[in-house]
Amino acid sequence: MGSVGLRNRDNWQTETMKSANKFEEDFYEVFEKYFKGTDYRIRKKPNEFSNIYVDQHLDETTISEIYTPEKPINKHGISPDFAIDNLKTGKTIFGDNKRQDGWVEGGERKDGRGNAHERMCKYFTPGLMKQLRDKGNIGNDKLPFWIVLRGNITRDPCRVREITLWFDGNDENLFFWRDKTDPTKLINHFETQIKPILE
Question: Per the domain annotation, does 46 fall within a domain?
Fold first, then answer.
């Protein structure tokens, strides 16, 4: 990719980040207001998992075969976008807000570029799922995370099918927030699908 292409890519990424940050703020604002005076709270960027990889045990053979930096690694983990706590039951669900472009009317199929939706798949990994369950006090019968998607990806005929397949049988842990101007469906999804996981 040439320098012009890189500059254009940086501009695209900057605009995407501005939209993503605005989306996250909208999401928090909705729930901060909704949870006022209840047993629930929302937290931004919870840090429970900020070092989960630092403490990952490796056997001696593996350690002898990989690079070991002189200065020890003291920060290596993940940071979900949010945590919703039920202060009464002590249960927590962690999650991500993902905004991504998508293929919609007047566009082209390549408009569905980006990998935000693929990055959320880390939550399905056995090791991370165990950590999320342990920290959130969520049993094995439900997924311990909630993904909320926004932007054109929520209407992209390819991405919607892809993501729906990934969550097959676990629809309650996924929400396509198609109309940000109306939080009613988002709140309703929380009330009917997520809140029961936290009770």
Answer: yes
Tell me the CATH number at 100: 3.40.580.10
Using the Cα atoms of residue 54, residue 140, residue 163 and residue 94 in order, give the sign of their dihedral: negative
Its domain, for residue 191, covers 22-198
| Span 161-176, pLDDT tens digits | 999 999 999 999 999 9
Query: What residues contact residue 88 under an 8 Å CB cut-off, 6+ apart?
Result: 39
Provide the sign of the torsion angle of the four alpha carbons 11, 113, 118, 26, taken in this order: positive
The amino acid occupying position 44 is: K
Task: Mention every residue, 6+ apart, whose C-beta is less than 8 A from residue 138.
Answer: 91, 92, 93, 132, 144, 197
Distance separating alpha carbons of residues 62 and 64, to the nearest angstrom: 5
CA distances from 117 to 13, 77, 110 (A): 15, 19, 15
Burial of 83 (0-12, 13-18, 19+ CB in 10 A): buried
Could you report the per-residue pLDDT of 69-128, keeping only the tens digit for each?
Answer: 999 999 999 999 999 999 999 999 999 999 888 999 999 998 888 888 899 999 999 999
Q: Is residue 54 part of a domain?
A: yes
The answer to whether the CB of 178 falls within 8 A of the CB of 155 is yes
Domain assignment present for residue 185? The answer is yes
Nearest to 139 by CA among 90, 175, 187: 90
pLDDT at residue 24 in the model: 58
